[in-house]
Batch of 2 targets.
Target 1
Amino acid sequence: MKIKPGIKDLLWMAAGAAVLLVCLLVVFHFHNDQDATAQLTRKVQRADWVGRMQLDLASAAEAEKSAVLATTDQDSQTFANQARAATAKVEQERQELSKLLPPNGTGHERELLAQFSTAFAEFQRIDKELLTLAVQNTNLKAYSLTFGPAATALKAMDGSLARLPTEDAQALRFATNARIAAWRLLTLIPPHIAEEDENKEDALEVLMATEDVQVQKNLADLAALPKFSNDPELTTATARYAEFSKIKSRILILSRENTNVRSLSISLNQKRKVMLVCQDALGALQQAIQAEPIAGITYGTAPVRPR
């Protein structure tokens, strides 16, 4: 025998179904809200990591430039250490961001991070070479020797030659030629230090050698004159020029290393280009993260009111 439900039973059943439906709707809505909040949180985290990378990348580049332009070994080393530390932070942040992108980011975001990673690897390679050169300061040391000890030795030589008793024209000519050739030689050293091209450095050294021959010849001609065989001023002049020649050899070795010139060239060319690529990739990644849609959340543009 079948028992048909009465109206009262039907009402209770309908009420129960309605309550169940409401509960399901509440749970579904609550779940959606939770999911949207979690997605938004992860999105903010990714954007924050990108922002940190942009800031630390800029700090690394600024410290690198300071290391290149510093005028002492200590300052160069200090800024180089700061650059390396900032670069290490960018690498750590890149790794942290990569952990967030695979499960949460879009394929485009992963592609942009890969582009940055490739450029940043080149950034690190260039930085390693550049900072190693920058802290050596061989060009600055060469300049310091040129305008310091080398110029002092040559000035002492010139003074001694100027004090020689050169009443006869021949002695005066020898002394004057030696002094002029020595100062001409000195003026060729700064261009050598500043020069980046090795062939041009070779040409300058040929000119230096020509002037050196003139100095040596005229000093020898003076020493051959009987009146100057034991002259203390000529002895001093010859000794000071020998001192200058030793300093000059050290200067040319430092100049050939060209660490300041090379590091500045790398900074202005290779480093600047790869830095722009890194910045562009991070900027595009930041935009992609910000534009990523989240269901249930509207942002970025104000709603249009109907007229």
Target 2
Amino acid sequence: MTTTVYFATNRVVNAPTDNPASYTFNIVAPTKPQEVTYGTAFVETAGLTADTVGAIRSIQDLSKGGFSQQAKDDLSKGGRNILVFIHGFANSFPDAITRAAFNREWLAAPGIGAANTTVIAFSWPSRGEVILPPFPSFSYRWDQTTAGQSGPHLMAFLANLEPILTAARKRGLRTFLLAHSMGNWALQSAVESWFAHGNGDATLFDEALLAAADEVHNSFDYVPFGRLSALSRLARRVSVYYSHADKVLSILSETINGSRRLGQDGPDDRANATHFPPATYRMVDCSGFNDYPVDFQSSHQYYRRSKNVRQDLVGVMTG
């Protein structure tokens, strides 16, 4: 089985551009969103498992600064709900694209039509390494820096998607954003950039799904539009998935950053209905889900390992 993944990446891409190995961990100039590469990848997903996420078979229809007209037409006129995915820490370009394909198939597996989506991935320049000598924190800090620097590129990507997502909703379809781990660090930078550049409110997504967010725990406190505080102005509802059992956040990320992360216990004051109106925010405690083999790494991947968490995600997609 082959899964189609539309994508954008602000990685520097060397020749040949149809080779996944050409997509580096270097970042294009922050002031040049026109250098962001857009394209379509085809991923072999037969025999898909949580630990074997497939392989990129081909990369086609490449363009700079925006999707090709063919991709725009395909996305605007398609009959499926749309899922936009932003990957986390330690994901190479092949990792990011195959993970997007996995997520699409994982969510579609129960056979519920609303979760049978068209997937679009944004891949920021992670090194794809968990620990890189000489310092254990080097690869983490590299990824955190490039994720933060990706804000203007991710903002431009969302602006390019806006007419596509609007066209989909006019046809009765729903649109979702799924940001995992450090992808939320890139997302907060993009949300800040969106409003700092004078863009107004826009209903880009019906649901923004923040899974195991490696972002500051008080991200929603930076009003009026700092960090993730204005995400609700771009999405009708925001769901925060968190887990006290997430060892990657509690052992690695909190130690390096010296502060609690959003994906550990949700945001500050999460039970305050005035601060977090239930119609706009959902807080989902995933700490008790152990319906998959749990170890250091998998404890951070519950959104794609736990069938119970998947059931919640699919429920959100059905509305």
